[in-house]
């Protein structure tokens, strides 16, 4: 079988979750549901809630900083930023462009993909279409 993907490696990862936690038990106190139903039907045990002044780009930047550090890179080394989200900061500019500016990753191309659950797979498929050896952060 012909090798389709060459010279591509995940060299660093990063993640970030807001500090505020809503448990299923807490949700029982504010909406008509039960903790047991949520976990059994949705598989969710808790949710992380962003602060009122935190945006998607704020969360992505924190994850991006960790990914860059984990990879041993500098922001100037990043060549592509893709933000897959259903909750962009605004319609324009893209959240990825805002992340690019906040990270000072000015050598990169940046764009958003509108996605929810399948975001990682959509980003991966998009990368296969764009693929060349580059340093990439996926948020």
What is the alpha-carbon Rg in Å?
17 Å
The description of the largest β-sheet is:
3 strands, parallel
Structural class: alpha/beta
- Poorly predicted runs of 5 or more residues: none
Mean of residue pLDDT values: 85
- The global form is elongated
Helices, strands, pairings?
Blueprint: E1 20-23, H1 24-30, H2 35-42, E2 46-49, H3 56-71, E3 80-85, H4 95-103, E4 109-114, H5 119-130, E5 136-138
Helix pairs in contact: 1-2, 3-4
Commentary on this structure:
This protein has 139 residues and is an alpha/beta fold. The protein has two domains: 32 residues, no CATH class; 85 residues, Thiolase/Chalcone synthase (Peroxisomal Thiolase, Chain A, domain 1, 3-Layer(aba) Sandwich), CATH 3.40.47. The chain contains five helices and five strands, in the order E-H-H-E-H-E-H-E-H-E. It starts with 19 loop residues before the first strand and ends with a strand.
Pick out its properties:
139 residues, alpha/beta, Peroxisomal Thiolase, Chain A, domain 1, 2 domains, three-stranded parallel beta sheet, two-stranded antiparallel ribbon, 5 helices, 17% strand, elongated
Describe what is shown at a glance:
The chain folds into 2 domains: 18-49, no CATH class; 54-138, Thiolase/Chalcone synthase (Peroxisomal Thiolase, Chain A, domain 1), CATH 3.40.47.10.
